[in-house]
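Session log. Operator J.P. requested a structure for one protein chain; no other inputs attached. Running the standard single-chain path with token output.
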Amino acid sequence: MKSAQSSLQIIPVLSSSDIERDLEWYKKYTGFTYVFGDKDYAGLQREKLELHLQFHHGTQDDPVHGSVIKIFVQEITTYFEEFVERGTIEKDKLRLNTPWGTHEFGFFDLNKNAVFFVQDI
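Structure written below.
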């Protein structure tokens, strides 16, 4: 099997039951801001990070389903302090020196998507 010449990027797509509401939530609580899209699909950015939101009706045929993303950073303390100040997380949510070799914290958005910030140690 041939290996890829170079990887460009990966962009997680998270479920949303209300794109407009979720754009405001992500701006307020995570610092990700709207870049493009409409009521069915939207892109957000923060620094060099990008994520997308895709509308789902919440029916059996088109469920809103929670995903999990991990954003790896070099200095987690800066992000942690910002997210506490934003009201996204509580001060006791930073997990230091996990058994798997990380510092990390996480939260759920309004659609039960789990977002983790992780620093390898």
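Operator note: Residues 56 and 63 are 6 Å apart (CA to CA).
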